[in-house]
């Protein structure tokens, strides 16, 4: 009996030490989930963020919404597709917008093919307006051209609440806004190393950004671009099967310890 009691005390001491160690290393803390913390990477107390995002340049398979206005509305009707029947949505723009083909061109009414690959939307506005004045209108028509991307489309995968293709109808979206639009990163997601897969003319590149560091706001990847893929990896703690909080972790350990003790007595009584 004395030997059994000594054994139990020894096991309990081991269990207590193990529990304290596991709780201190496996629980998800505020440092893991709080965005834009001051980690000493910013010198001044107040951080003034300058827009580091480069102007987006149109790529193959982008869909453009082009609107032409003039003093005489009837003159520009042919250039403006009607969306009254299907609404001004991403699906509607798929059918009525101007898709950039594999050669970087769009097929514009009257004007024919216009190369837009690598141009900003502002440059495309100037280009379309110039061609219209050259081929169709006179200066007195006072035409006005607006070019926009048909929504900022991106994809979220991994430890986010809503996985899949997302669309935001804004010209500029930062990565935190994009993630919030997808329901935010789950508790088990690694915010310190979020991956951004971005398309370039020569192929795709993977970039890394630490969203728990306020210095992320100065990164050139803080603002997302159309067709970006945002990948959030799971924390290593998740693969261990530990709980998200200390209570959950202790509950798991206690359950395991209870199973071990029950098995010990069961075997001992056989």
TrEMBL record:
GO terms assigned for molecular function = polysaccharide transmembrane transporter activity; porin activity
Q: Which InterPro entries match?
A: Poly_export (IPR049712), Poly_export_N (IPR003715)
- List the Pfam families hit by this protein, alphabetically: Poly_export
Q: Which domain of life is it from?
A: Bacteria
Q: Which stretches make up the Polysaccharide export protein N-terminal domain?
A: 53-147
The answer to keyword Ion transport applying to this record is no
Q: Which GO terms describe its cellular component?
A: cell outer membrane; pore complex
- Transmembrane region(s): 246-267
Q: Per the database entry, which stretches of residues form a coiled coil?
A: none
- Return the protein name: Protein involved in gliding motility EpsA
Q: Which organism is it from?
A: Algibacter lectus
């Amino acid at each position: 009996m004395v030997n059994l009691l000594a054994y139990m005390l020894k096991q309990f001491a081991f269990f207590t030490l193990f529990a304290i160690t596991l709780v201190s290393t496996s629980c998800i803390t505020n440092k893991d989930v709080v965005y834009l913390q001051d980690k000493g990477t910013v010198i001044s107390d107040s951080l003034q963020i300058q827009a580091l995002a480069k102007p987006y340049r149109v790529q193959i398979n982008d869909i453009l919404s082009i609107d032409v206005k003039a003093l005489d509305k009837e003159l520009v009707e042919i250039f403006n597709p009607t969306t009254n029947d299907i609404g001004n949505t991403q699906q509607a723009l798929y059918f009525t917008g101007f898709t950039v083909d594999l050669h970087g061109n769009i097929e514009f009414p009257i004007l024919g093919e216009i190369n837009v690959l690598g141009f900003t939307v502002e440059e495309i506005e100037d280009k379309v307006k110039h061609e219209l004045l050259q081929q169709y209108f006179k200066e007195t028509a006072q035409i006005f051209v607006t070019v926009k991307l048909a929504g900022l489309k991106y994809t979220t995968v991994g430890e986010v609440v809503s996985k899949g293709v997302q669309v935001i109808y804004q010209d500029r979206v930062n990565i935190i806004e994009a993630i919030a639009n997808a329901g935010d990163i789950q508790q088990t997601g690694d915010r310190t190393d979020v991956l951004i897969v971005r398309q370039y003319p020569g192929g795709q590149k993977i970039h890394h950004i630490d969203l728990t560091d306020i210095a992320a706001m100065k990164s050139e990847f803080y603002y997302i671009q159309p067709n970006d893929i945002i990948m959030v990896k799971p924390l290593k703690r998740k693969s261990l099967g530990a709980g998200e909080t200390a209570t959950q972790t202790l509950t798991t350990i206690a359950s395991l310890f209870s199973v071990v003790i029950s098995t010990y007595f069961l075997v001992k009584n056989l």
